[in-house]
């Protein structure tokens, strides 16, 4: 696996991203291919987020989504909002390449580090992050409130 296969996301990647999301969490199937396409368009046009994809044989087989993260009590960080590698390509260095690209982007753009959340059950992912110098800081519960009026 090589770094030259990494590039920024394009709207035309939406089908591959949809498939990766399904593989990561089958419950995401309710979020249609068309919605994924719309989200990519919004992220590219209206945010400062960065999404790197790894392409192999004209197929996106992994991605990492970073978002600038400003707080009133911390130097700026990049928040990892999504990080998926197609299962059959895991443990081949692809995840390392993607996260290194995001880390370099963060350094080049004046961020102090990277923050990410990982589900407690994802023990292999935790080992991956720890090997890369990420430190476990706390357990927490995540809450969400859905608005009925959302279209």
Automatic annotation (TrEMBL):
Species, as recorded? Paenibacillus ferrarius
Q: Which Pfam families match?
A: Acetyltransf_1 (PF00583)
Its taxonomic path starts at: Bacteria, Bacillati, Bacillota, Bacilli, Bacillales
Q: Which GO terms describe its molecular function?
A: acyltransferase activity, transferring groups other than amino-acyl groups
CDD domains to which the protein is assigned, alphabetical: NAT_SF (cd04301)
Entry keyword set: Acyltransferase, Transferase
Q: Kindly list the residue ranges recorded as spanning the membrane.
A: none
The N-acetyltransferase domain sits at: 4-151
What is the protein name stated in its UniProt record? Histone acetyltransferase
Tagged with keyword Acyltransferase: yes
């Amino acid at each position: 696996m090589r770094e030259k296969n990494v590039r920024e996301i394009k709207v035309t990647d939406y089908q591959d991203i949809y498939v990766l999301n399904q593989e990561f969490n089958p419950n995401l199937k309710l979020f249609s291919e068309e919605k994924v396409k719309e989200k990519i368009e919004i992220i590219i046009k209206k945010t400062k987020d960065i999404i790197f994809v790894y392409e192999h044989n004209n197929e996106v087989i992994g991605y990492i989504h970073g978002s600038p993260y400003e707080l009133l009590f911390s130097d700026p960080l990049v928040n990892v909002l999504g990080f998926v590698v197609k299962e059959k390509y895991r443990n081949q260095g692809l995840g390392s390449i993607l996260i290194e690209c995001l880390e370099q982007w963060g350094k080049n753009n004046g961020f102090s580090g990277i923050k990410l959340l990982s589900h407690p059950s994802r023990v292999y992912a935790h080992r991956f992050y720890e090997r890369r110098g990420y430190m476990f800081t706390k357990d927490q519960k995540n809450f969400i409130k859905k608005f009925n009026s959302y279209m």
